[in-house]
Write a structure and sequence with these properties.
This protein is an alpha/beta fold. It is built from 17 helices and 18 strands.
């Protein structure tokens, strides 16, 4: 997958000068040994030789981190630690680079005189000084452990660090104003800048001109071949592939020409109603292909939807999708699929749908089709031409996480996370669609999605990614991250007498 950062974690051990420095060094080396044994870390992990005891050591450690090209930092309290220098290290490492603080637990009851480190106490002072400096640091739920536990915490930090680095180096390209019928996808710009995200808003005419300039471009032939290979038997409308390939090429060229100082990019593109009559197709299949490569393209100029999808991509290293939280599941369909539904209530279920932007890897028997609703509107239900281009199919069953990061109208960031699954039930409908089961979805729908005024689009991660996403939101300073609260745990506005 392209368009995502490679994380290189640097570990710097710290030591308070009234404790043996060798205690921190020995414990750091043990952590590195456990990291190697653990395996599975996508990142390189580098241990700085410098043990930080004072401010001059901070400068030495920073030089080592820079030389190693580390873009994420673990401050490891091998003993109590010097709270001033260790937090200064985090501060100087950079506001656009993630930092984790962890501490050493005592290993042996037979060595609690010369071998006691008191890092359990030191983490309290480290936390206090993180606040004094106004820093945001990643601190695990229980940040004190023996070397094997610290290694596991580093492994959990890696995807959080990837989210942080990716977002801090992201540019969003948007085309066209948000459609009047979808003002819910409003996008106050200031919170994007607060996150470190660049935004470049463009006219649909800019994209249309760029698209037309690539007519008969020979590079489209390779794109068509790749589409044919991906679709296989699902290539039901081969005549539209040329237009789709021309559009895909236009987006690729636009990003290369306009990404500027940013390393990564996503798109938020207007896709109706004039798109079909002017471009001559619907762009859904192209959107799905970009998402498969780590470059989400959100529908309906949903800027925060594109950002949401990209965060999912960073957290999971899997293609995401963006779906409408769309319609209820009929009672007779629930009754006919009792085995698959299991203990879920009817109100736990809904259908997640979009026209055809979900990547082929997440669909059972994906096929190129046409947008039925637009066909009715623009082609009077006749032979489809300009409404072709959706990628449709039933979403494969398995674990999922609903997630969205959104700004309120008054420019405050908030988010939600809800884990659940897609059931192995045929939705018997059109589009990219599946039957989702989220525990206590009915209450979550009313007291989070509605009460907090979220738009209808939800990002979907294929797998349970709640832990990483929640940690990433904390690291970004998103104060309100809601979740689907279990029965008996009331939401703030929930009627206790209902």
């Amino acid at each position: 997958m392209i368009n995502i950062p490679k994380v290189k974690i640097g570990i710097v051990a710290v030591s308070r000068d009234c404790f043996p420095v060798e205690l921190s060094r020995k414990r750091r080396d043990a952590v590195m040994g456990e990291v190697k044994k653990l395996g599975g870390l996508d990142s390189d992990v580098f241990a700085a030789d410098t043990i930080v005891e004072n401010e001059l050591d901070v400068l030495k450690a920073l030089e080592e981190l820079k030389a190693a090209k580390a873009n994420a930092l673990v401050v490891y309290l091998g003993n109590f630690g010097p709270e001033g220098p260790e937090t200064l290290l985090a501060q100087k490492f950079g506001s656009s680079s993630p930092v984790m603080f962890v501490a050493a637990a005592e290993e042996c009851g037979d060595n609690l005189i010369n071998g006691r480190g008191d890092a359990y106490c030191g983490m309290l002072n480290a936390s206090y000084n993180i606040g004094l400096r106004g820093l945001r640091a990643y601190i695990p739920e229980y940040p004190v452990a023996t070397p094997d536990g610290v290694a596991k915490m580093i492994a959990e930090f890696e995807p959080v660090a990837r989210v942080f680095i990716g977002v801090k180096n992201l540019k969003v390209f948007s085309f066209g104003p948000r459609p009047f019928d979808f003002l819910a996808c409003n996008a106050p710009i200031k919170p994007l800048y607060d996150l470190g995200v660049e935004i470049q808003e463009n006219s649909e005419l800019d994209l249309f001109a760029f698209f037309n300039e690539r007519k008969n471009d020979p590079r489209t032939s390779d794109i068509i071949k790749d589409m044919e290979k991906e679709l296989g038997a699902g290539n039901k409308h081969p005549g539209v592939l040329g237009r789709l390939a021309q559009y895909e090429l236009a987006l690729m060229d636009w990003a290369e020409k306009n990404k500027g100082a940013s390393d990564y990019y996503v798109f938020a593109n207007k896709c109706w109603p004039a798109f079909q009559t002017q471009f001559g197709f619907v762009p859904c299949y192209v959107n799905s292909r970009f998402a498969s490569r780590g470059i989400p393209v959100s529908c309906e100029t949903d800027i925060y939807g594109a950002l949401t999808e990209y965060i999912i991509t960073l957290a999971t290293k899997q293609p995401p999708t963006l779906l409408d939280i769309n319609n209820t599941v009929p009672d007779n369909m629930v009754a006919a699929n009792k085995k698959q539904v299991g203990s879920y209530k009817n109100t736990d279920l809904f259908m997640g749908f979009h026209c055809g932007n979900t990547p082929a890897c997440h669909l059972a028997s994906p096929e190129i089709k046409y947008q039925l609703i637009m066909n009715r509107l623009l082609e009077s239900g006749g032979e489809p031409d300009i409404t072709r281009g959706t990628l449709e199919g039933v979403i494969k069953s398995g674990k999922v996480t609903l997630f969205r990061l959104q700004s309120t109208a008054c420019a405050q960031l908030r988010s939600y996370i809800a884990e659940g699954e897609v059931l192995d039930i045929d939705p018997k409908s059109f589009g990219g669609i599946g039957i989702f089961a989220i525990p206590e979805m009915g209450r979550f729908y009313r007291h989070v999605l509605m009460a907090k005024r979220y738009p209808h689009h939800s990002g979907v991660a294929f797998g349970h990614a709640g832990k990483t996403l929640f940690s990433a939101m904390k690291l970004f300073g998103v104060a309100d991250t809601a979740f689907n609260q279990p029965a008996g745990m009331l939401y703030t506005d929930e009627n206790p007498f209902a």
